[in-house]
Amino acid sequence: MAKDTFFHKKTTLNVAGKLIDLSTPKVMGIINLTPDSFYADSRQPSIADALQQAEKMLADGATFLDLGAYSSRPGADDISVQEEMDRLLPVVEAIVTKLPGAILSIDTFRAQVAEAAIKAGAHIINDISGGQLDADMFTTMARLNAPYILMHMKGNPKTMNSLANYEDVFNEVLDYFVDYYNQLKQLGINDVIIDPGFGFAKKPVHGYALLNRLDEFNRLGLPILAGVSRKKMIYSLLGGTAADALNGTTVLNTIALTKGANILRVHDVKEAVEVVKIWEVVNT
Question: Is 87 a catalytic residue?
Fold first, then answer.
């Protein structure tokens, strides 16, 4: 916590005029609107299924819901902008209607989808590409005046595994954040969250190196999102598959909090909320 104070880390997020306090870590629940996301149990192919999952996650303590309609698993096939919006927008509209207090994050790298989702009632854009896959994303975000999650990735979901090569992964990711955050600041985008992109163009060894130094990203003064839930960096070490990786996820979420993470992006909200509660007691 001393490092956070020294670097004057931003711990509030303005979501449609409502300030969210991130000095107490928050949980973001993942709702995949795709038929092929890497963790099968996260797939919610119908509006009714997505609504039910949203209700459960909010009841379990999620502050944010992250909706994704384009699979970003390694090697995933491309889909059209129209197909992404056809999957996404009816769910956004249903949640806004049925669960008006829900704070919706949209997992997309396309400016057109981002704009349509915000206009439909969503609040945050979670861009896995950091603006690299759509040249209009940053200017669109400036116009929308919505919080933006800046994630590190190289290439795209189909090519990223072949680009997982680094001489110094931490400093390369840090330089990336410095560069792109400066661009966002120049456009007047104030509410930026950084995400090191665990599993995106990164081998497990890179993920653990980034987690080990996660607290050093505090020098940027920005909230940090950690998305390690059920990822290969866990089950490649422990064995099994994503379905077996809940315990490992809990361990890594705990480490992420000790290293300064402000948001845990997870498939299993209840367990992550319990991690935060225990972490809070220890750090009070």
Answer: no
